[in-house]
Amino acid sequence: MKIKQVLLYSNQGKMRVINFNLIGLNIITGTSATGKSALSCVIEYCMGEEFKVPIGIIRDRVSWYGVIFNFGDIEILIAKPAPGKGKNSCSQVMFREGSIITPPVFNTLSVNSNQENANSIMAKYLKLPEIPTHLSKMSSREDYKLKLKHCVYYLFQKQNIVANQDQLFYKQTDFSHNLSIKDTFPLIFGAKDLKTHLYEQELKEMKRELIRLQRNSQDFDFNSEKSLNILKSLYNEVKVLNLIENDLDLDESNIQAIIDILKNITHIDNLKNDSSNFFSNEINDITEKISNLRKERKRFEIQLSNARYFSNSENDYIKELEEQQSRLQTIHSLPYNDQNEWQWPFSEENLALDSDIAKRLISELESLDKKIKDTKYYKPSQKSYIDNLIKEINNTKLKINTLEEQLSIMIRQNDNYEKDILENYDTVALVSKIKFFLEHVLSLNSGSKNNSKIGLLEEKIKKIDKEIDKNDFNDRIENIVRIISTNLTRILHHFSSEYGDSFSWFDFRKLTVLVRKDDKIMAMNKVGSAQNYLALHLSCLLAIHQYSLRNNCPLPKFLIIDQPSQVYFPREEDFRNLVANKNNKYSDLESVKLIYENLNNFIQEEETDLQIIITDHAEIDADFFRNAKLEPRWINPNGLIPENW
Q1: Which residue has the higher pLDDT, 362 or 583?
Q2: Residues 305, 306, 310, CA angle at the centre, nearest 5°?
Q3: β partners of residue 371
Q4: Which residue has the higher pLDDT, 578 or 505?
């Protein structure tokens, strides 16, 4: 699993694609605040981790994030919308799978799956073993299975980690992740394989069966006095409940006859299974109908209340209209009355009514008069509507009362039926006890046969124990750590570190690196100097990936390193000042160059299938460095986010 492309989509639908080399170094350089460190956050987000892109221009202008992962012959696209406001995660993804995946255009982006499903598919291509962790029996936690998220610890060396004296792996300082690294390391790197797991599962089942047989042999030996007493006790209970007619003496000569009686008891049908009087389903149905009718009645009552309110309001409105019409009639607002007689006493008939102003005025007055009349006489039959609602409410109440009476009757009958059931409880309990006892008696038949089963099972357990002991779990872990430590020491020798000639090893228990010098053993946080911390980090991570590659471990084949030059140039300004000073011998710059040369040599000469991605503000004057650069140096305002976004 490697990174083929990182995709960003702007709010306006523009697309930004960063292409990566699947083999060798991938270097991105740039000035501060150009999005270099955010690149790994995007990759994490598409792998199901929290959204850690810094607040600012990237969050403001990007609507979708995507990564195309390469698995050799298969490629997978995971694209995700930006989380909602105030959220730091998103479980919905756009998922595509195929031999060659091209970046989708913006208008085709759509959610079609979820992160859990996408990670599950990627885990299958990685061939993550589907076996649980190997937690101690004394642990309060339960075993769990390996997932893609358990690989991220070895894939990201963030800016605040790459030279950290106290933290070797990503997320290590979080207590739960610290435990998770220790739990899953053996699974990722093969300390516990599927064959061993199957042996352990088989062994666990055999030991469980052995305990059962040993307990049965002790408690239910047919020839034992305890077993005979239990048999007698069961027979007496059968007689007390009057389940048999004949009475046998409880002596050894009648044991088989008693067993036969008990067998017959287990087949009796003494319970009242006739469910004709059992109204559980009917009670539920009627209860639901009553609930629905009450809701319907409530709806009618609300409609009735609104209708009455509207009717009262309308009456007031009509009354107001009548008063307005009366006023208009009193002042003779129109020149002609309803009989077409002239009614304006203050002017002569048809005086200047042909003018445009008069025509418009008369038209407005006629329109007003018509609206008043129409409104007055256009009134729905509110009384009929209200009467119908009252009728519906009464009918609904009647239905509710009828159903409530039926419900009351059924509940009483149901209580009587349940009482009958309780009366048979003793019989049911006794039949269960008899079945349990007879199963053990019949399965054992005799103590000698049971002892034979126990002997065979003990032999099988010893054989499987030997198979597992051939390659003890703890021994396998120690062997893996030893190989990683040997490679770590060899790789460290090439870096600029005062402990390059010392023996170093990976401390799996404490998740750190130990160094031995002058017969003195020191943990990583005691060696001093940021240059030493950086060298130990890089050497250990390279050694881990080397072990993974050479042993076909299910670890993704990429490593992302952010700002390795910070040890020598904490600020970009320091790097610029150093380069500008022509009298400087560039000792620090040479040290940075050595780091990149070692990383490049490791890929070119040792592990050609490893993809290393580096983001940094330092530039190295070397051909291999220029060839590994993916894009021209990012300089504000152009970086991860283009200026035109």
Answers
A1: 362
A2: 120
A3: none
A4: 505
Higher pLDDT among residues 165 and 326, named by residue: 165
Q: How many CB atoms lie within 10 A of CB 207?
A: 15
- Angle, in degrees to the nearest 10, between helices 530-550 and 473-492: 130
Q: Are strands 558-562 and 156-157 parallel, antiparallel or unpaired?
A: parallel
Q: How many angstroms separate the CA atoms of 102 and 75, rounded?
A: 10
Contacts of 366 (CB under 8 A, 6+ apart): 334
When computed from its CA atoms, the radius of gyration of the chain, rounded to whole angstroms, is 44
Q: CA separation (Å) from 82 to 65, 172, 539?
A: 7, 27, 36
Query: If DSSP codes are grouped into helix, strand and coil, which group holds residue 221?
Result: coil
**Ranges assigned E (strand) in 469-519:** 503-507, 512-517
- Contacts with 137 (C-beta within 8 Å, 6 or more apart), sequence order: none
How far is residue 217's CA from residue 441's CA, in Å, rounded to a whole number? 10
**Dihedral angle at the C-alpha atoms of 113, 117, 122, 124, nearest 10 degrees?**
-140
Q: Parallel, antiparallel, or unpaired for β 92-98 and 512-517?
A: unpaired
* The pLDDT value given to residue 202: 73
The string of pLDDT tens digits covering residues 215-266 is: 665 544 455 566 677 777 888 887 777 777 667 766 656 777 777 787 777 7
For residue range 578-591, list pLDDT tens digits in order.
665 654 545 678 88
| Continuous segment of H or E residues that includes residue 359 | helix 356-377
Paired strand residues for 503: 516
C-alpha distance across the termini of the chain, in Å:
31
Which of 376, 466, 388 has its CA nearest to residue 196?
466
What's the number of CA atoms in the CB half-sphere (13 Å) around residue 502?
Answer: 23
Tokens 């780091």 sit on residue: 595
**Contacts for 240 with CB less than 8 Å, ≥ 6 apart:** none
At 230, phi and psi to the nearest 5? Answer: -65, -40
Q: Structure tokens of 110?
A: 């759509």
Q: Specify the residue for token string 């490791």.
A: 602
- Predicted model pTM: 0.61
Q: Residue 298: what pLDDT? A: 85
Please state which of the ranges 36-40, 337-341, 488-492, 635-639 shows the lowest mean pLDDT: 337-341
Dump pLDDT digits (tens) for 554-573.
Answer: 999 999 999 999 888 766 56
Strands (E), 280-355: none
497's tokens: 């570190």
Cross-strand pairs, 77: 68, 96
Q: Give the CA distances from residue 296 to residues 148, 293, 391, in Å, rounded to whole numbers and listed in that order.
A: 54, 5, 13
Helix (H) or strand (E) holding 83: none
Count CB atoms within 10 A of the CB of residue 584: 12
